Amino acid sequence: MTAEQAKILCLFFHRFADLADETLTAFVEAEENQVSNATQVYSAKQPASRLMNKAEIADHLGVSVRTVSNLIKDGLPTVPLGQRRIQFNCEEVLLWAKNREVKRSGKAKLRAVS
């Protein structure tokens, strides 16, 4: 092999490596965009937080429906739906219950939920 042929072959391999790197980079970016788009679509389909009725939140907290009524008087967060109907934002209720447990550490606690 002559020096000229070796030089051409070296240039060929360098260009091939550059093309392979560009192709791989483009492929990785396309995959990242697909994952990002899929995440955005999934997030858009999911509700910010699930609303529950009194029986569902009672079951979730491990207390009776009557206890939920009493907890409402103590400040349990509700979501009003009209004049007489209420629902409960599960995340807000869990946060409220967690804060309440910290304040009332010596008294009866709600069942630990996650």
Could you give the distance between the termini? Answer: 71 Å
Number of helices: 4
Principal-axis shape equals rod-shaped
Poorly predicted tracts of residues: 41-47
Order of helices and strands: HEHHEEH
As laid out across the biggest beta sheet, the strand order is: 1-3-2
Return the average pLDDT rounded to an integer.
77
- β-strand amount: 5-15%
Roughly what percent helix?
55-70%
- By secondary-structure content and strand pairing, the structural class works out as mainly alpha
Could you give the count of β-strands?
Answer: 3
Q: Report the sheet with the most strands, covering strand number, pairing sense and barrel closure.
A: 3 strands, antiparallel
Query: How big is the Rg?
Result: 30 Å
Q: Care to describe what's here?
A:
This protein is mainly α. It is 65% helix and 9% strand. The protein has a 3-stranded antiparallel β-sheet. A hairpin with a 3-residue loop joins strand 2 and strand 3. Helix 2 crosses helix 3 (65-73). The longest helix is centred in the N-terminal third of the chain and has 43 residues, at 3-45. The radius of gyration is 30 Å and the shape is rod-shaped. Mean pLDDT is 77; it is low at 41-47.
